[in-house]
Specification:
By secondary structure, the protein is of the alpha/beta class. The chain contains 13 helices and 23 strands.
């Protein structure tokens, strides 16, 4: 269903209420998502992005209700990932000669995924313009590694709309479409989760790109990303949030993450959390069993934290697989300016604490030497190590 964004610009995407996972099984979308596509009808008619392949036929049929496909003059693909380009092959079967505007790397991405069909690619770079009539232009802005090498944004003059693709988005289904219509708490939580799990590894580039866009002096009345809400009320609020989040963000929070076999490691985890609250009552403490908790939600809590404490028993001279996999994911997100400590239990060889410490260092954390490593079940001697660990973690 078409929804008006501003003047002759409409949303023609798909609200995906049933979506529960994204990027395979890596990212949880408990509040659904949307694939946002936009139709501009000026002297030239422009379609910006498409939707995911599972919804391609519904997307095309709905699009036909809004415009004769042969009247589409240009297609802009801001990013080749399948959630944005999945309907493109089916669409191009209907209008095979329509020019596609995208980055040079997007050509490689699209042809790599869908094959070489002789589509009419028009490669653009930052600052290139496309006249769409009525005195309006599209200005293209490369957004390399935000979050793919082929990513770009498109700005529409006079209506002052930034079609930002993955930047400033959320996996969040909002039938009413606009940020001022959404549940504000859910919206900002989902925006932070999206930043943490998708854009945080590229924070340095985020800051540079925001500065570059602002230096272009483009007035921005609306930010229309490819997922989630369209920012029409105070749209630059999400830009300010990105600037804050990209600058080694942290709150007064410590997150404890662990897995356990027979509850020895669990007991240490809970004792550490209680000691943090005892020594620093104003510090928020979150505790997660990573074998049960959702990993992308836990990463959002890590993003907010100034420090984390990670624990596992030793199993087969290693850590539990849930902890190992989570530590690998942790490394990929490239957190900055955070401290960490390790703990664990063992019955024989006892390597888990050292392994966790090394993995945390590899992930970029400042790892304190204090740890709790208990043989079998923790006793008073083990619990007595916790106050010093917490004190140094808070220092």
């Amino acid at each position: 269903m078409k929804k008006q964004i501003k003047n002759n610009v409409s949303w023609v995407g798909y609200v995906d209420w049933e979506l529960e996972k994204f990027h395979g099984e890596d990212y949880s979308t408990f509040n659904g998502s949307s694939q946002n596509s936009y139709l501009i009808r000026e002297e030239k008619n422009v379609l910006i992005d498409t939707v995911w392949a599972p919804h391609k036929f519904e997307f095309i049929e709905n699009l036909k209700k809004e415009i004769d496909l042969n009247d589409i003059d240009y297609v802009v693909i801001n990013h080749g990932e399948v959630d944005h380009s999945g309907a493109l092959p089916a669409l191009m079967k209907e209008i095979p000669d329509v020019p596609i505007y995208c980055s040079a790397l997007a050509v490689k991405s699209l042809e790599g995924q869908y094959g070489k069909h002789g589509w009419n690619f028009n490669v653009v770079k930052t600052g290139d313009r496309l006249d769409i009539g009525h005195g309006k232009e599209l200005i293209f802005i490369e957004m390399k590694m935000l979050h793919w090498p082929d990513s770009m944004a498109t700005y529409m003059t006079k209506d002052n709309i930034l079609f930002s693709n993955d930047a400033f988005g959320q996996h969040f289904a909002v039938e009413e479409l606009y940020n001022d219509k959404a549940d504000q708490c859910l919206l900002m939580n989902e925006a932070m989760k999206y930043y943490t799990n998708i854009l945080n590894p590229f924070s340095v580039l985020v800051l540079k790109k925001i500065d570059e866009i602002l230096e272009m002096g483009l007035p921005i009345d609306i930010i229309a990303p490819s997922h989630g809400v369209v920012w029409r009320e105070k749209p630059l609020q999400i830009v300010e949030k990105y600037k804050e989040w990209a600058d080694a963000y942290q709150e007064n929070q410590i997150t404890v993450v662990y897995d356990t076999m027979w509850e020895s490691t669990l007991k240490i985890a809970h004792a550490i959390s209680k000691e943090i609250s005892k020594q620093s009552p104003d510090t928020v403490v979150k505790v997660f069993n990573i074998g049960k908790a959702d990993k992308s939600d836990v990463m959002t809590e890590v993003f907010k934290s100034k420090a984390i404490v990670v624990g596992s028993p030793t199993v087969g001279n290693n850590v539990l697989s849930n902890v190992s996999g989570w530590l690998s994911y942790l490394k990929s997100l490239k957190f900055k300016n955070k401290k960490a400590a390790a703990f664990g239990s063992y019955g024989w060889s006892g390597e888990s604490v050292k392994i966790i410490q090394e993995k945390l260092k590899e992930a970029g954390f400042e790892v304190i030497e204090d740890n709790v490593k208990c043989l079998w079940s923790p006793d008073k001697e083990d619990f007595d190590k916790i106050p010093k660990l917490v004190e140094n973690l808070l220092a």
